[in-house]
């Protein structure tokens, strides 16, 4: 995320025109950067691309992809690429994705896939925790535990948490709470097969045009919330598009 920087004029000999030029450039960078962060940033809600062609189903869903809810008619498949440490992913989850999972159960097939970003120090470790839980049939439970307890392990004040040992202990606690064999969970977390699963998700995300998180696809087409001013407006937009697809 961009950091505010103070400009200090150290020499009184700078002309007024030069100072004004610097101010204009800085303001332009801040404004443009802010817009890009909300619409396209690393954790700013995903690139919108409603006019893009649909991504092939075999790219978005693999045989071992994690299905949170499944519709018998297979009419609408929703695929979300997430980074568990991404604050916007957590905002989506707590704001509407968790409710959508329940409200549309049986009507949509809802799949989540990994897309950990380098800017988030614990994102890979959290993804490994989710995948390790999946080997014991508890992906959904760990997915919820990671997002429900996000503030405990993912944030450190106004910064991203980076204490891997602390996060590991918390993930093991979640594993115990959801009924996993914790010793096996610890072994699977560091196994090559778990990392290979995450790497495949990232590769497929790249092939689908994912560049940030969260990024959501509805029947292969990237969800576009349109011109929204706040996160509170995104949930209704998504529900509207879900209902439109289901009404076809």
TrEMBL record:
Residues 46-247 form the Thioredoxin domain. The keyword NAD does not apply. The keyword S-adenosyl-L-methionine does not apply. The chain crosses the membrane at residues 18-38. PROSITE patterns: THIOREDOXIN_2. Pfam families: Thioredoxin_4. SUPFAM superfamilies: Thioredoxin-like. Keywords: Disulfide bond, Membrane, Oxidoreductase, Redox-active center, Signal, Transmembrane, Transmembrane helix. GO terms for molecular function: oxidoreductase activity. Belongs to the thioredoxin family. DsbA subfamily. PANTHER family: DISULFIDE BOND FORMATION PROTEIN D (PTHR13887:SF14), GLUTATHIONE S-TRANSFERASE KAPPA (PTHR13887). This is Thioredoxin. It comes from Saccharopolyspora rhizosphaerae.
């Amino acid at each position: 995320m961009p950091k505010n920087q103070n400009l200090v004029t150290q020499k009184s000999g700078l002309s007024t025109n030069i100072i004004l030029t610097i101010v204009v450039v800085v303001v332009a960078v801040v404004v443009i950067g802010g817009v890009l962060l909300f619409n396209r940033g690393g954790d700013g809600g995903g690139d919108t691309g409603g006019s893009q062609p649909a991504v092939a189903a075999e790219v978005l869903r693999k045989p071992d992809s994690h299905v949170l809810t499944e519709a018998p008619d297979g009419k609408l498949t929703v695929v979300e690429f997430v980074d568990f440490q991404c604050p916007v992913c957590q905002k989506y989850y707590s704001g509407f994705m968790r409710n959508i999972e329940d409200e549309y159960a049986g009507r949509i097939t809802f799949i989540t896939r990994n897309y950990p970003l380098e800017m988030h120090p614990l994102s890979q470790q959290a993804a490994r925790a989710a995948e390790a839980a999946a080997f014991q049939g508890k992906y959904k439970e760990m997915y919820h535990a990671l997002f429900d307890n996000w503030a405990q392990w993912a944030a450190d004040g106004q910064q991203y948490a980076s204490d891997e040992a602390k996060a590991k202990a918390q993930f093991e606690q979640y594993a115990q709470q959801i009924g996993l064999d914790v010793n096996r969970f610890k072994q699977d977390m560091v196994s090559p097969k778990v990392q290979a699963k995450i790497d495949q998700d990232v590769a497929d995300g790249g092939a689908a045009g994912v560049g940030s998180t969260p990024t959501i696809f509805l029947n292969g087409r990237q969800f576009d919330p349109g011109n929204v001013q706040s996160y509170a407006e995104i949930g209704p937009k998504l529900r509207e598009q879900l209902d439109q697809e289901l009404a076809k």
